[in-house]
Amino acid sequence: MNSPLIASNNSLPRSSSVHGSYNMGSSKILRQLISLSEDFEEYSLESDTGDLIDQVISRKHLRKLLSALQARDASTLCHSRRVAFLAKGIATNLGWEGIHLKRLEVAALLHDIGKIGVPDHIIFKPGKLTSDEIELMSHYHNIGLDVLQACRTDHEVLTILSQTRYHFSGATNGYQFIGSEVNQGARILAIADAYDSLATDQVYRTGKKHEEIMSILMEAAGTQFDGNIVCALSRWEQNEKQAFHDALQEVNRLFQPKDFTEREAIEANLISNIFSYLFQIESLYDGFYIVNADFQFVVLSPGLEKLADLRAIDMLGESWTSGSLPLTNKEGTNLTSAECSMNRVIANGKPMTTEFMLERPGGRLINIEVQSVPMFGDDGRLLGVTEIFRDLSRSLKRPKEYNDLKLAASLDALTSVANRGELETQLAIMLSRIQKEQNPEPLSLIFIDADHFKNINDSYGHSTGDEVLVELARLFQHETYSGELVGRYGGGE
Length: 493
Hints:
globular, Diguanylate cyclase, Rev_trsase/Diguanyl_cyclase, PAS-like_dom_sf, PAS
């Protein structure tokens, strides 16, 4: 045991019968995630190979994941290859090179890896997805991140994939990341993914032409997408025209689904089982983490990141301590070593469920339930521990519907920028953050009032006035690149 805060080896039960009685099927699946982490092929900087991929992800793991994706749906893998081509091309035109380009390429290849676990009736549905189905798809996106964490994938790749669904305006992530604060690789990948999805025939519509796709992307520039990157894609196509479209067709032509060996089929099935089990955890609970036998974080799920206000990339590979998560006892005081569920489950070798308080940003405490599951090998050796979290105070509303209502309440109905209430909320958050920081970055507020706006309404009618406001909002969104929040205070302000 490397951590001094963990019960010593001498306190662990040695009886294999005790360990065996809790060596459940679910634990076996979780053990596979630890195995993925331990099976990582460490890249040596002294290696003679010039291929940068080994610095980003184990080549063995990449092959396994892409094979499992092909086994699930070969067309999704082909889509991922086209998206990788587009993302790499856009980034190259923006001056990217070397390891940064390779990270983006790998992220694009793996951006749909979560679909390995999506049921047939959804992945092959001949129509648009319902809100419930979209919510389920978001679970599988998170599961893909869980598996990639276990594969010890480069942290920049994890960041790109975790932010690729963030809208440029910040509206979909609570305005925590606005504009250029969203990882540029994520902004590039979002546009490459949207372009290929629109260009590809779907069961409910035919693929769109380039000009129509660019019109759709430009319409969403400043809100969903980064307008500068949309323009970079447009310039690339205009400059190379025929070569651009020929290269996309070449990606399709070169993709030939391979035949699987018996071993590859078994590995693909194992990966699929991991996704299926993790879906149960992601859909029933609010988050989880896994530590290995050395008590280093192997997985810290996106749900737990949100619940505990943590960043997985700051935790992965680090040693667990009693202060790793902001947990307290019922009285609101820090947990003692004896109160930590991790120490207790290691000491008795059995799963257990405990209730704690978790401190949220701002100091608010919420009641949570923690399930602690030790994982043992067939020889009785401790392999790691999983702790699964459930927020006992959460609303019973369905997350997708709740998030949609929350988003609608934060946006101006006409211009789709932040409304007055959201502006005041975000300003209060920013001021509070500045007051807490020792060396805060400068904060500025620009108040703009459209001159002679009443004359426009009086002369041309309110519908024309509305169009002016929409265009003004779009102009401001297009001309802000550094994390600025654009909102409508009221009227022409």
